[in-house]
Amino acid sequence: MLAAHKLDITRGDRRLFGDITLELRPGTLLLVTGSNGSGKTSLLRALCGLLLPSAGEVRWQNANIRSLREEYWRHLAYIGHSNALKDELSAAENLGVLCALSGVHTGPEQQRQALADFGLAGRERLPAKALSQGQRRRTALARLSLCGTLPLWILDEPFAALDSAAVSRMQSVVGAHLADGGMVVMTTHQEVPIVAPAMRELDLDGFGR
Amino acid sequence: MMALLRAVIRRDLMLAWRRRADIATVVLFFVIVVSLFPLGVGPEPNLLRTIAPGIIWVAALLACMLSLQNMFASDHGDGALDQMLLAAAPLSLIVMARAFAHWLMSGLPLVILSPVLAIQFDLAPELSPVLTLSLLLGTPILTLTGAIGAALTLGLRGGGMLLALLVLPLYVPVLILGAGAVDAASAGLGADAQLLLLAAQLLVTATFAPWAIAVALRISAE
């Protein structure tokens, strides 16, 4: 279970939001919405432990993530708005490295399958620099089909640059993860219906500045 | 965990190999800087023999500096660093693995080339192994110490210059011991003391630098 308690984030002199308290149980999807610059990415980075909140804490299974560190991160898949792909490595190699960093070890066959799931069949060997923006995003997201064992997914704008086929693929991957008792936190600007056992929405525009 | 670290080393070696030009730049820089001195100083054998260890060591130091700027910068830019910060293994171990890969591609070639370059200075053949051994012990210290500076200056404008100002003073003890080892051996004193001190410094650096690099990376990534 992921919980944030009285989270307060300040970037520079500007207080993005304060007093966010939330709780995420297995099977819950948390949609973070808000206008540009409302602090969606900062909230996600704070939930990951990349950003230190100016007050409050994030807890995983009732322990502060700052003391859990790797114990927390081995349960987490984070996909930020940059895809973390290396231009010189092929799509499959990139996927292998990203999964390995999450502690999930994959073979070439699994990588090929995951990329095919996201409509990249036949492009496994292409260097990432030869892929289009949408294909790069798909490669980064293909990691989710291999990281189903990680209970918590934190996704920053997963639908950016995706075409409708990839969006529906993502909907089913996220839906299946939630049905399996996983937890998903994501930000989005698009209205994308996802079938979830439980869903919550957090509108950051409503939080005091 | 070992599989994770192996994957990180493999990734870095693969990337370095596909960006061979970056390695070639560092190695050629080292070769050219060392070769300029005999041309500039003139063919006076005694003088050349005296300055050889110092020149080769300073050139190795600068070449290491040159290679450091890319160590974390591109990963910081494309988000790959965030994934390392959130990896399932302790960051200090990942950093250690990356420093090892970095040294294999940028430090080891300098160690291997040094006996060949020493010929230009007419360095006595029995001193060559001492020079190589001192570089073998010293270059990993340069990589690890430099990586702390690279992590601290990550994402700053003009980081390259700042990196040099931060790191070069820290290189001084390594330079003194490394070049001093060859000097001592050529004076017939034996280089054991300097080499043992270098080895000790390597152990201390290898123990504490990964931790310092990890902390610096977390601060830079915020």
Walkthrough of the structure:
The complex is a heterodimer of chains A (209) and B (222). Chain A is of the alpha/beta class and 209 residues long. Chain A is 33% helix and 26% strand. Chain A contains seven helices and nine strands; from the N terminus they run βββαββααβαααβαββ. In chain A, strands 6-7-8-3-9 form a five-stranded parallel sheet, with helices on both faces. In chain A, strands 2-1-4-5 form a four-stranded antiparallel sheet. Chain A is globular, with a radius of gyration of 17 Å. By secondary structure, chain B is an all-alpha fold. Chain B has one domain. In chain B, helix 2 packs parallel to helix 7. The model of chain B has no long low-confidence stretch (mean pLDDT 94). Chains A and B meet through helix 4 of A and helix 1 and helix 5 of B.
Attribute tags:
heterodimer; A: 209 residues; alpha/beta; five-stranded parallel β-sheet; four-stranded antiparallel β-sheet; 7 helices; globular; B: 222 residues; mainly alpha; 0% strand
Q: Tally the beta strands of chain B.
A: 0
Report the uncertain regions of chain A. none
What is the number of strand segments of chain A? 9
Gyration radius of chain A, rounded: 17 Å
Q: How helical, in percent, are the residues of chain A?
A: 25-40%
Give a short synopsis of this structure:
The complex is a heterodimer of chains A (209) and B (222). Chain A has helices at residues 40-48, 65-68, 70-73, 91-101, 108-117, 133-146, 164-179, and strands spanning 2-11, 14-24, 28-33, 55-60, 63-64, 76-79, 152-156, 183-187, 198-203.
